Amino acid sequence: MPELIDDAPDPAAPGGNAPEFTVSELSGAIRRVIEGGFGFVRVRGEIGRVSLPRSGHVYLDLKDDRAVIAGVIWKGVAERLATRPEEGMEVVATGRLTTFPLQSKYQIVIDDIRPAGQGALMAMLERRKAQLAAEGLFAEARKKPIPFLPEVIGVVTSPTGAVIRDILHRLRDRFPRTVLIWPVAVQGERCAPEVAAAIRGFNALPEGGPIPRPDVLIVARGGGSVEDLWGFNEEVVVRAAADSAIPLISAVGHETDTTLIDFAADRRAPTPTAAAEMAVPVRAELVAWTAEQEARLARAAARATADRRQRLRDLARALPRPEALLDSPRQRLDRWGERLPAALRARVDRARLRLAGAPVRPELLRRRLGDGRRQLGERAALLASALRRSVGERRRQFDALAPRLSPEPLKRADRQRARTLADLWSRLGRAAEGRARERAGRLAAAARLLASLGYEATLERGFAVVRAAGTVVTSRAEAAPAPALEIQFRDGRLDVVPAGAAPAARPGGGRGRGAPGGGQGSLF
Amino acid sequence: MTGKDVAAMSFEEAMAELEAVVSQLERGEVPLEDSIRLYERGAALRAHCEAKLKAAEERVAQITLGPGGQPTGTTPAEGL
Questions:
Q1: Residue B79 counted as domain residue
Q2: Percent of chain A with pLDDT over 70
Q3: Does A310 touch chain B (CB under 8 A)?
């Protein structure tokens, strides 16, 4: 690359004729260029990292896919911004560029920042809505009922313009009321703080103070662009509406516009006129209703007495005359009264007749009574002597028997029995002893006999027992076909193979318990 | 029924009770003595409702604000 080398400054003369700056001079020059050239810029980009230090200034990055510019919003500006910068927000920032010589940096000092385009605005609105909803500010449980007939209606709106006229007009038609207008800006930077302050201000009014406290609030604004209505989306407004102890109707924009205050309000009216309709009933209807109630009341009361009067009359008619009640019993009394003397007479006649037919003679009765008394006297006299005799007889018999009663015979019998028992006891002992001795002797004899008869003794004398398959063999005929025999000697048993068995049938030997088969065979 | 002081009632409360009184009387289930008392109660409620309806006067005022945004009083709103 010889051309490039030719163009390069001469290394022998460093600096050449270029002026020489100090760092501060250069830095100041750059600053003048930048501030001069970018004294007022609008820049569109996405907000990157945002930091909010205690100082109140806001530091943020503006970026797109290839570059980043640091930005700052001074405290005073930040406080009156309509839009609070949030990370990720697409914005258009207005401001001027300046440098920060200490760090060789430049930044934009932002005077205003607002969301770029509808999409960004809506996205931010959705985020805010979700966040406030998560806090429960829109919960159904928070909604208060609108009073049926408020005495005082507070309206938060612009004191001029169609909205307040529409509301007053509709109220006048339905039910004229006391209306308090709290004037506010309904768009622009002042809108949100003023509306919030108005809602809180109405709520702060004491009951019975010089300014009457409203029974219901209407927050109203006519239709407009999303940006125009934006103040009613601000958090301060939404929180003030949610906190309102006075029931609140929101009527912001047209029916199709929805702002966040609508979610926090107790009722949402599609238009300011509709809000007025929600706030009061129709007076004429109530007047008619009251008149109807009055008529019904009078009718019901009149009927209550009329019905009772009629019922009393009916009952009175059905009540029988007192004489009629007594007629029948009196008749019965008369009938029975007539029959009473005749019945009594008949009864007396019947008794007299019986008395005359059965005469009673006192003479006879007296005689029978005398007889009875005499008999009783005689028998009583006999009774005592008979008893005495009987007792005397029994005592004599007892006296004769008593001396003969003595314990001696019983004792004698007792002694006799003891002797018999001792005798029997000793005889039992003797008899048992004799029997035991006899049995032992017989056992010994039997054992001896067993030994002499058993074959074990004969083994001592040279005899042997031959078995085949565990069975005793006593003849040649039995032994010859057996494949193996067992011989029991005096001192143990020995397995042998008889010579008559075919030696070829034996599988090589070694299965027997004794000596090899060949050697055994020669024994027979 | 003879509970709350009628004068202290809201229109809605008076309305609801008046309706109840009327229908109770109409059913004719109350003893005569009670029905007289009930009627008197109903009449008082009706009068209260009517008074509330008569007091339908429009007064429109605008809040006046001090320098700190505090309400200082009201001023009649003209021409609305």
A1: no
A2: 91
A3: no
Q: Return the beta strands (E) in A421-503 as ranges.
A: 465-468, 471-472, 485-489, 492-496
Candidates A148, A282, A294, A305, partner chain B, best to mutate (most B CBs within 10 A): A294
Nearest residue on chain A to B51, judged by CA atoms? A287
Tens of pLDDT, residues A118-151:
777 788 888 889 999 999 999 999 999 999 999 9
User: Is the pLDDT at A6 greater than 60, yes or no?
Assistant: no
**Tens digit of pLDDT for each residue in A364-399?**
778 888 888 888 888 888 887 888 888 888 888 888
Are the beta carbons of A289 and B74 separated by less than 8 Å?
A: no
CB pair distance less than 8 Å for B32 and A304: yes
pLDDT at A384: 79
Overall number of domains in chain B: 1
Cα–Cα distance measured from residue A257 to residue A263, given in angstroms and rounded to the nearest whole number? 12
The boundaries of the domain holding residue B54 are 6-74
| The CATH number fitting domain A23-118, selected from 2.60.120.380, 2.40.50.140, 3.90.180.10, 1.20.1560.10 | 2.40.50.140
Residue given tokens 């809506």 in the structure block: A122
Q: Which of B43, B53, B59 sits opposite A287 (nearest CB)?
A: B53
Q: Using CA atoms, how far apart are residues A333 and A358, in angstroms rounded to an integer?
A: 39
Tokens 């039995």 sit at which residue?
A478
DSSP string, chain B: ---S-GGG--HHHHHHHHHHHHHHHHHT-S-HHHHHHHHHHHHHHHHHHHHHHH----EEEEEEE-TTS-EEEEEEPP--
Enter the CATH code of domain A124-279.
3.40.50.261
Q: Does A171 touch chain B (CB under 8 A)?
A: yes
Coil, strand, or helix at residue A191?
A: helix
Q: What pLDDT does A15 receive?
A: 58
- Residue B80 domain flag: no
Residue-wise pLDDT tens digits, A512-522: 444 444 444 44
Please check whether residue A111 is in contact with residue A220, taking contact to mean a CB–CB distance below 8 angstroms. Answer: no
Query: Which residue is closest to A289 within chain B, CA to CA?
Result: B15
Which of A172, A182, A293 minimises the CB distance to B58?
A172
Q: Is the separation of the CB atoms in A78 and A56 below 8 Å?
A: yes
- In the predicted model, is pLDDT for residue A248 greater than 90? yes
CATH of the domain at B11: 1.10.287
- The complex's ipTM works out to 0.82
Q: Would you list the DSSP string of A422-437?
A: HHHHHHHHHHHHHHHH
DSSP state letter for A230: G
Q: Closest Cα partner for A259 from A270, A246, A243, A248? A: A270
Among A173, A268, A187, A260, residue whose Cα is nearest residue A222 = A187
B11 in a domain, yes or no?
yes
On the 0-12 / 13-18 / 19+ scale of CB atoms within 10 A, A16 is: exposed
- pTM value is 0.52
Closest CA to B80 of A175, A185, A217, A169: A169
- Closest by CA to B55, choosing from A488, A283, A158, is A283
